[in-house]
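Let us practice reading a record.
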Amino acid sequence: MYKAIECDNCRTTHKITNFGKSAIIAMSILPIWIFGNILSPSDNIFLSAGIGVLVGITGFLLTPYVVRYKEAL
């Protein structure tokens, strides 16, 4: 699922770490669950689900700035 990335300049291959995989899950799935189950602002399920998905997408878009790669051997 997670492909290795090859640098265009030095042709070095980098792989995602296990911590990086966990960070992706934590930043995309957990906010949806936390918002949907704990912080839901209203009784309207569609509004809560919509806001939860927006929070999850935002977290998913921020993952490239948090996830670290290491040089593959």
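A brief commentary: The mean pLDDT is 82.
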